[in-house]
Amino acid sequence: MSMLALNRANYQRRKLGSIAMNLACTLAAMIGIVFLALILITLLQKGLAGLSLSVFTENMRARGGGLGNAILGSLIQTGLGALMGTPLGMAAGVYLAEVGHNSRFAAVVRFVNDILLSAPSVLIGLFVYQLVVLPMHGFSGFAGSVALALLAMPVIARTTEDILKLVPDSYREGSIALGAREATTVGRVIIPAAFGGILTGILLAVARISGETAPLIFTSFNSFNWSSDLTKPMASLPIAIYRNAQSPYPELVQLAWTGALIITFGVLLFNILSRLSHHFISGRR
Amino acid sequence: MTAIPIEGSRKFHLGDSAFKALLLLAALIILATLGAILVILFLAGRLAFQQFGLPFLWTDAWDPVRDVYGALSPIIGTLASSALALVLAWPVGFGIAYFLTETCPKFLRTPLGVAVELLAAIPSIVYGMWGLFVMAPLIADPIQPWITANAWMIWIAAIIALYFAFSGVVGSALGRTGLARIANGVFLLGALAAIGYFAWFRTDLPVLPSLDNPFWWWFQGGAIGGAGLFTAAVVLAIMILPFIAATSRDVLLTTPQLLKDGGYAMGATRWEVLTGIVIPAVRGSLFGAVFLGLGRALGETMAVTFVIGNATRAPDSFFAPTTSIAALVANSFPEAVNGSLKQGSLFALGFILFVVSFLVLAMARLLLRQGRMTG
Amino acid sequence: MNSKITLRRFAVGAIAAVAAFASLGAVAANADEITGAGATFPQPVYTRWAEQYAAQGGDSLNYQGIGSGAGQNQIINRTVDFGASDAPVAPERLASNNLLQFPAVIGAVVVSVNLPGVDGNALKLTGPLVADMYLGRVRMWNDPRIAALNPGVSLPALPIAPVYRADSSGTTSIFTTYLGSVNLAFNTTVGAGSSVSWRAGIGAPGNAGVAGAIRNTRGAIGYVEYAYAVENNMPTPQLQNRNGQFVRPTTAAFAAAAATADWAHAPNMAASMINTAGAANWPIVSATYILLPKNPTDAGRSLKVMQFFDWAFKNGQPAADQLHYIMLPDAVRNQVRQRWCQVQAGGHAVWSGCR
User: Which value, to the nearest 10 degrees, does the dihedral of the CA atoms of residues C201, C206, C207, C209 take?
Assistant: First the structure.
């Protein structure tokens, strides 16, 4: 066989092999995407079936009822958690980007931050139980907020650092040349310039903590009452879903699906908002 | 024109250092949080180690009546469900990443990519519910009976996959040498023999697991209501799938186009460019993505508690109910009396989980950073 | 300075949000709420009583069914106002934690199955047989031992899937005490307690979780409080009692067992009604207990708890009947009221009915 023919046969074989593997990858992708789409479709189907005004206005009960107090509790605890975690996270992010740079210490802080970012949330719940619930002699919405703040803090620190590193050095140099202090530089020049990205980080953190269940089990307990008292146990949507899903009563299971839909929708909304903020509020010149 | 304030120059410096001190405080708080978690988990858990010693790690017991606790079953459950989830999720996730970067039509790329990232954000409790109500009944009937009845097919598929993996590893390690060919040949013979065995001797498996034939009992065992190791692994796999896909896609995108173009210029096919150029270039980062997914899967509570069966026994088949550290802690912690051995054991389990996650995540970071540097 | 304006707007928005949250607190705080936690065994009747009590102007009750073990733990830590447990607490633990234990209501544990073609009370089982199922010794529904008891029932070749409580449960304590008393192997291998080392089956959280698991699994067998089985129309097989009679789980059978309880001599009023002698007795009946601190820091809240149960003792019969629970005998209710005098604050009893 001539060299040319050999090469052509070889090439055909290789091409076939490549097409086959491409097909395999596409098939795998299809399988994955189909599964994920199925989940969303199931969620929509089952969740929408139970969606009504009473879900938002009625409290959780042993039979029937709604998710009103759970939604309120989630809003409060997520809001407070984000409020407590944001200053800490931002300060740490600013430290890593502006002060620490590439020092050994900053590298350690970065590493530890990443570990905290991906740490199992159930362990954070245990931690806050020992730290807050036991000394306070009771479950409370406050303890739940603390747990959520601890989960939000690393996310915000990481995104703040990443976005601050993107701000050009000319901003800092110009500010210092004008005689501004470090605090002024950071507060009035750099952060406003990076504002969109920071908001992205905060919204991402909110999206993450609004879906957490395990840490709330050990800290804010649950409640059947319409309450926003932070020193008392507080209901939350993830726990409501958790308890209702395992109930044998069909209307409670339906509530669980609707709650899952609400939470997913909320999380997706925050994620989309965070992307939009990154796009539109960038402060670039 | 703004003049540098001279009168206030002392305040100038003080403000600066005060501000930096505040920032440093925040950084220290992050360090302190990790330290505090480790310390609290360890201190609260040392009761278990004091009582049972190191054998606590490999004893299969969880007897609250006799107050004897061993960590083996939750540890095995955690590792097995995460590993199985990774095996199931990684090919699909990588396939999605490859699809998104190479074969997908351009107009679909961004929307699909965004969709995958959004899916990664869905709370795990939603996956848990879906697993309980949709996946578990499916696995109870028809998936698990089918697998049990056709376990020989699974074995054959596994052997084929193993052969490809083996030849891939040998190929990258030894190149096209004679030694590689011999190794490949030997393995191929062995694989063919094994395939022949399973195809010939496929048996009608009894419904209940029995230890008579070790090749089969792993696929037996009633999935009670579909709850068990396999279901938990499937739910976990679907949960970490978008995560792995998004991270792998980011990694693949960092490959310099120049490298790929060079490969295409020499006449390589798409697949050869992928396996011969792209993957070796980003191999470290890809492993990092895998470890990141593993780290996520290890700590999952909600997705797993619903479907893992909550049996504090080490699993004796793929479908056996078992437990994981996170699920056991979530279930048993509220009732453990303060200062009791049970609570100490749960904290010890938490400590073990944290250490394992720590190691996996540290490994992931190292690999991701290495991969980035060699790009 | 586009971003500056946005920053300002954002800051204003954030402050407004915080203010909104804070104002919500002012509006909706509920200070008269009694918190209790524990057994899921009596949860249906407690929540029904709570609804009726609140409707009549009483305090609102926040009862979380998290399992007897967790309930005991919470009241020991004083994180709730009262704990609820089906498993009576050991006297030493009551003493060392300064807790008062009193029964509130009586209920029954029944076995439920999910077998195609088997409904209502058709299936007959015995205690030792059920124990063997939970030990993994009887593994298929068409086992000869089950068939021998049920000649007219066609039993499918389905694996038996035992379901138990994943959380620490008084219902488990009651059930394992019963199984241990009729099956020696069960007693030595597994033992009795709120949380045991089960040899076979899967765990589900709460009575509700077990009921759900049974409903979703073909071939399942599990144990639940009677109200859960009835509410969900689940099959409840007959059990053979101590006298050798196969008894249907009915309120009459429960009441017959409850009548044999020896309240006078039970330590801390923990009278056993398990495997009692009597032709019509259901073998798994138990009271469920409330735990109150004897030295409460907030006497007012303990008083509210006692007032709630006092109301329930007087007006709770209709709800209990509807949900198939059995009220305590009148004499026992008065005995409980006398025991409330042990809750002391500031040197005198909190309950108003004490001398």
Answer: -60
